[in-house]
Amino acid sequence: MGVVGHHVVLMLQYLSLVVMVLVIQTLAHNPDWGQTEPYVEEMMGKAKVTKLRFYFHDIMSGKNPTGVIVAQAPTTNQSATGFGSLAMIDDPLTEGPGLTSKPVGRAQGLVGFASQKELASIMALSYVFTDENFNGSTLSILTRNPIMNPVREFPVVGGTGKFRFARGVANVKTYWVNATSGDAIVEYNVTVIHY
């Protein structure tokens, strides 16, 4: 190999080294696991407001309950508020207050009794809609529920499908309750902003 060939090899090695350093610097300053971009409303389209009214049926009794206790505090710690109990639910949502009313979805998630002094729970629920208008779409609620208050307000913290990027509130009131069985029907009036 002549002097020119040797210089070409050295130049190619140098260029390869420069390219490798540039790639490493780019990866170090722009990780592929996250990227922040400016928010442009036009990317999402116009925001919409949807108002929903439905009934939540919490059935803790009978042969086919839709809510079951999956964990409970030791008997020495049991209180009148249910403190320490954790339930998993798959409750029907209907258009009207009757269980035979048109089904519109299911409420699925966890309800934990979180207060030693009052009947209050912490809820992490996904409201999965099945009717033709919102089929497959969900709303997520994460909240504290002071059950004995006649009217409660829950935050809607997210959504999917037709409720993508949802935020809003659910005004909730107990329609009917059986204190012995724990069965209840709860009316939801939900207002969400979404794209």
UniProtKB/TrEMBL annotation:
Main location, first listed in the record: secreted
Residues annotated as transmembrane: 6-24
Entries under Gene3D superfamilies matching the protein: Allene oxide cyclase-like
Pfam families, sorted: Dirigent (PF03018)
A single GO BP: phenylpropanoid biosynthetic process
Subcellular location: Secreted, Extracellular space, Apoplast
Keyword line: Apoplast, Membrane, Secreted, Transmembrane, Transmembrane helix
InterPro entries: Allene_oxi_cyc_Dirigent, Dirigent
Gene Ontology annotations for the cellular component aspect, listed alphabetically: apoplast
Described function: Dirigent proteins impart stereoselectivity on the phenoxy radical-coupling reaction, yielding optically active lignans from two molecules of coniferyl alcohol in the biosynthesis of lignans, flavonolignans, and alkaloids and thus plays a central role in plant secondary metabolism.
Family per record: Belongs to the plant dirigent protein family.
PANTHER family for this protein: NUCLEOPORIN-RELATED (PTHR21495)
Quaternary structure note: Homodimer.
Protein name: Dirigent protein
